[in-house]
């Protein structure tokens, strides 16, 4: 059995929640009314290859490392992790733990293939697709070249499976974002 632990804090702006979370070096998915950005987190700020992101219009954020995920909406931040010892003191509102029967490691393939001609620089990968244009993703390691394979990126997640009712039915009750990884697909564009 795996326990997904959570704690919350209310009344923090996104920059203050980022600082309090301690998720420096993580990735952020940022939602505004007019844009959706993927950014890296450094010192309480979010950055893209173009520079520091203005967080004032962000109304929802998911920030994650391999160990924890911060979910922020408005002025409430919730931190999720399997190890409660990693929770900073600011997250002092208790949230009920989730006792999972098992966990499933999952992944989602991102749109586009690696486009070296649009590379934004070290620590970033550019993905291009005729359907959605260009997406930049923070990645510490470069996506290696491979003959005959399309270079792709996928988002890793961990699903928490619980027994959901008196009849023993199970379902995925929660999913935590983990990180990005390279993926080589033969013949898939």
Annotation keywords:
2 domains, mainly beta, 9-stranded antiparallel beta sheet, 3-stranded antiparallel beta sheet, 189 residues, CRISPR-assoc_Csx19
Architecture overview:
With 189 residues, this protein is mainly β. Helices cover 4% and strands 56% of the residues. The chain has one helix at residues 14-21, and strands at residues 2-10, 27-31, 36-42, 45-48, 51-52, 60-64, 68-73, 76-81, 93-100, 102-109, 113-114, 124-129, 133-138, 149-163, 170-186. The model has no long low-confidence stretch (mean pLDDT 89).
Structural class, from helix and strand content?
Answer: mainly beta
What fraction, in percent, of the residue positions are helical? under 10%
How would you write the strand order of the largest sheet?
Answer: 5-4-3-2-6-7-8-1-9
Q: What is the average per-residue confidence, as pLDDT, rounded to a whole number?
A: 89
Radius of gyration: 18 Å
Task: Give the ordered list of helices and strands.
Answer: EHEEEEEEEEEEEEEE
List how many beta strands DSSP finds.
15
Summarize the main sheet: 9 strands, antiparallel
**What is the tally of helical segments?**
1
Shape: globular
């Amino acid at each position: 059995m795996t326990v997904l632990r959570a704690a919350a804090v209310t009344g923090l702006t996104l920059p203050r929640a980022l600082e309090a979370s301690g998720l420096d070096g993580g990735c952020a998915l940022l939602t505004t009314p007019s844009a959706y950005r993927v950014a890296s987190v450094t010192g309480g700020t979010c950055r893209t290859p173009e520079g520091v992101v203005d967080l004032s219009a962000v109304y929802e954020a998911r920030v994650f490392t391999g160990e924890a995920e911060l979910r922020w909406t408005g002025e409430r931040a919730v931190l999720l992790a399997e190890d409660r010892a990693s929770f900073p003191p600011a997250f002092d509102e208790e949230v009920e733990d989730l006792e999972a029967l098992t966990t499933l490691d999952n992944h989602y393939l991102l749109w586009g293939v690696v486009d070296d001609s649009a590379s934004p620089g070290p620590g970033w990968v550019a993905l291009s697709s005729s359907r959605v244009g260009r997406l930049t993703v923070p990645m510490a390691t470069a996506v290696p070249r491979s003959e005959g394979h399309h270079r792709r990126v996928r988002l890793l997640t961990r699903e928490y499976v619980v027994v959901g009712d008196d009849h023993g039915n199970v379902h995925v009750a929660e999913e935590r974002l983990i990180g990005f990884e390279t993926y080589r697909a033969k013949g898939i564009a």
